[in-house]
User: Fold these one by one.
Assistant:
Number 1:
Amino acid sequence: MVALTIDDYPRPTLEILVSLLAARRLPWTSALNADTVDDGYMYAPWSTGLSWANVAALPSALVEMANHGASHRDITDPAAVDAEITGSLARLRSAPPARVVQGWVPPGSDYPGLALKTPPQARGIADYQSSVAGRSILNDHAWALGQDPRPQDAVGPVITWPRDGHPVPVPGRQWLDFPHGAGLQSGGDPAGGFGGLCVAAAIARGHGAILGLHTAHLVGQGGQDRYDLGQLSGFLDHLTGLRDAGRIAVVRVSDWMSAKVVAR
């Protein structure tokens, strides 16, 4: 059981990634900052979006929206927390066509009492419950992801979670956008990158995995040039092959949260 999350709202998400995922019928969760869709807004040079009309045009059968905070900026004023979290959720839900927005995907930002960027990051339910910002996130959303580290285990730096029908409090993601394409392949083999190892471990354990990606870090798209289009396409083909062979299901995070899988 694999869920794919795409963070932020750079143009490559719409101009490149949407068509790649749609061609393979791969569902995904868009972690969207509500403010970044407004004309002229940016929090980084590569972070510009397009428009609310482009959001409306995303295929609802494959894409779900998740709240990623309003601005993707650090918030130091406690009075601004509500607008950053609850206000963003309200905007995403009300933007036509109205969508069901259930979840929270944490941005790399710090809030009063809740570190989602600066180590030690919020990793578990207790970290969320200990701050006003964290409690607002838990109260306003059906599910929330955490910022867990990548644990070292027998198969490498992978993170998987039991999917036994019970909720997983703030599960962390396995990142795919490592430098030199290491999250997507190793020596040209998509099964050998961190993402492939994570998926293989999830299959072996009867677990689920949540994979995270920033399209801005695709070569030539304004970010940090961490992977290229061939590496990304190869990994998506790998996921598609595993799905078509009946080895995995690829789902949106909301479906992943309530799923039950067993080891094969």
Number 2:
Amino acid sequence: MLILIVATIISMLVGDPTDGSIIIAILLASGILGFTQEFRANNDVAALLARVEVKVPVIRGGREIDVPVAEVVPGDLVQLGAGASCRPTADSLSARTCSSTSRRSRGSRSRPRRMPRFRCHPTPR
């Protein structure tokens, strides 16, 4: 793209406005097509995410049920399978090993840029 812009400038300076105009038209068409495709793709992803409802298995009232993530309340016991990840606000009752993607949990003093995720491997029953 940068090469085409430089070519347009050189073409205009040399005195050939026809080639420069053609290159500008191609750049504008490319930009409009790229923007339109990106805009439609973002709308499609938003529509798909609106249809998807992520559920998590929890123990509530002594029974294991699947609940939408937004409806998990304090007191629910979230069932994590091997390789599952959760926010650090969840309490872990029993786990064999837990690891984190956060530098803070590994001893770093710098503030993490995003909320850390913990990966827990449940204790075998």
Number 3:
Amino acid sequence: MSELSNYHTVYISPHLDDVAFSCAGSLLLEEQKPLSITIFSDAEPENKKQAFVKRQQEESVAAVRGNYDFLFAGFNDLRNTKNARYFGLIWGEMEPHLITSVYEYLQKIVEQTQAKKLIAPLGVGRHVDHRICYEAVCKLHSNYPELEIWFYEDRPYSFPVYSTEVRLVELGYSVDVDYGMYLESLSKVRYMSHRNNEKKLARCRQHVEEISALSNHKEVREVQYITNHNLPQIWNIVSAYASQVKFFIGNEQQFAAECQNVALRYNKEKYAERRWRLF
């Protein structure tokens, strides 16, 4: 890893679009230029690599539009490895050695950049790559207790009602969840409507049965809302990912509608992002 400049704030992006999809409003409000690190920025099979070159080019466009620096960690996207065995919302098991590898990489980043704040994925939607990033960042907290860590809600996986709360229940936190509303909302979201929809929903229903019986006692430390009403500028960042946006987000009008639905759930207007400080 080459020497890095100092950055007050570092964003962690599991894939080449996650920070922009989830935090575009925050990026535009940063007073100092932040660094965004994509962890799973590559693919193992040769026939997948060209697609990732295109996605890396999209990241460079988004970074200019969002005024942030970026770095590719070079780990292989687990959906695009030779032995990929994940489907839909990616219900794969996390491999401990990979969590350790990502942790060790991020440890070097924190030391080189002298970062004061880390903004990382909460893991809403259970995508294995997102959960690996979450676990690696939690390990960082143990060795860098002074580091301010916030977890963002992974979009579009957090678009369904109560999806974030379901993730918090998984993690042992005591929050209110209407599982019926969650499953109904999940069945209508765009990214669930393309392939193996019934298989995905059946696995989600099974997961709800598993976690609804939990008796949780952990309390969230702090919740933060970031509002930004400049939707055209936010969309300008999000739309840089032309290879992904149609499948996951749709067009500008659909994006605006989803964002407004989320903002209204937060009692905000037009556009808002929510972050969680868990420890």
Number 4:
Amino acid sequence: MSTPKPLHKLVIITDLNKCFGCNACQLNCKSWHTSSIFGPLTDLDPWGAEPFSLYLMRVIRIEQGTYPNVRTIPIPISCFHCEDAPCVKVCPTGAIYKRRVDGVVVIDYNVCQGFKYCITACPYGNIDFDPIEGVSKKCILCVDRLYDENLPEYERIPACVRGCPAGARIFGDLSDPNSEVSRIVAEYGGFVLGEQYGTKPEEEYLPIRGPSKGPFRNEPELPLEQRFAERTGAIDQAPDKVLQDAQQLGLTPEDLRTYKRNNKNVLPL
């Protein structure tokens, strides 16, 4: 039996050719969600012998080559919002679910009982547990930013994309063949991590390709906001397109900004 498809597939594409491992994505995510509706991100005894700090994403580093010809490759990792998400299937309370309208996997903190089945089921280690709140937490693609109509269009992107100084994180809708993320995945050969687990991760990576081209002197000078929107994928205005379909389901922007489970927006897996 085929897996049901969401109406849109909002994702973050990570360009490994641009990422240099500064961890700005991780820290910007931490900063945003510390005070967002999906926070707090707990810190315990940060200067003690056994500190604990909760993050919704991380940057791992792998070595390539043989000494002395070795290089380190940084790889930012957050929830892959899998098409066939095992975390959703094992949750006994239905607290974690995949949304019908945008494909984002979200945890309803009001329903989560802290059984941690989702943490065990995720083969990528992309879900963590908040010992103070007593609930599981993970990347939710900053839906509180995406559908905040008080933000300018170019700011309605995930915090990690917003904070990347290299433009290595690009946001968009992979179900739209004309989107920037669809274009670069096709052009540069996007790939997923952990394909062998059969969860069908939605988020993809672009391979290392060597020195990139541009900018060139004869390129037209664009307004700062437009250049930023093109670099981050905000130029496609994916959240607005999602909202148009959400309205057909009787969903409001506020419904999409929250973690609360709404049966109109639950994709059965």
